[in-house]
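Thread: quick sanity check before group meeting

JM: Hey all, I'm pulling together slides for Thursday and realized we never actually wrote out the predicted structure for the chain we discussed last week. Dropping the sequence here so it's in one place. If anyone has concerns about the input, flag it before I start.
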Amino acid sequence: MAPTTQTQDAPLQPTTTTPQTPQLTESSPAAAAPTQGGASEKEAKEQKAFERWTKTLSLITGIGLSKEEFQTEINKIDRKQCELRKEQLIKTSPGVRFMMNNLVKSGCPLTKNMLECGPCDNTKSGGFSKDHGILLCQNGFFSKKHQEHTMIHEMIHMYDHCVFNLDWDNLRHHACSEIRAAALSGDCNWTREVRRGHYTFTKQHQECVKRRAAISVAGNPKCPSRDAAEKAVNAVFESCYNDTRPFDEFY
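JM (edit): ok, ran it. Output follows.
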């Protein structure tokens, strides 16, 4: 939506055929001249406020924007929020800072250009690539805490790749890292499980970790089926679930 513009007339100068000083009245242009600057500033502020309001209304309703323009604006908002939260979490989150410090100790420091916000499909909140680093799905977070857990989750994958030299085409290797990431990141906290609609009281954490790991492994291009993913997870579950490195215990 193109912004509206407003032009202003120059103050009128009184004309007279005599040297007399004109009498100023409330309706006289000359009388208004001293306050023209203040009025213009007020009008400019009101105009900006109106433009912000109309833009917000367009984003809420979609009126006045094409589908492409609407999505572009939404992407800008999502990215800005994701980047802001990322910077805050790097500074304040104990879990994020702990993992970043341990990545440095492991010889694989995580730089800012390796931790990027970007749009994803609706099924993901993040991802790790051994070649590119960590992607944070800017449109996939429902809260700052969710983004924090995702950042820690993906950092654990990066840590495993660096320390254990994983072969991601090997389903058991992939399953082990997914088990550790789900167990240690906070992804399987009770409140997260309740939000997903899972209400188990016995071995809730373990069951969540198994389920989340199997979903991720099933997405591996080398995985032929969900059944194969579950078998890979079950085969390595006990040893990988109990391996909390670099944490002393579950985060």
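AS: nice. Residues 1-33 have pLDDT under 50 and may be disordered. Residues 52-165 form one domain.
JM: adding both to the slides.
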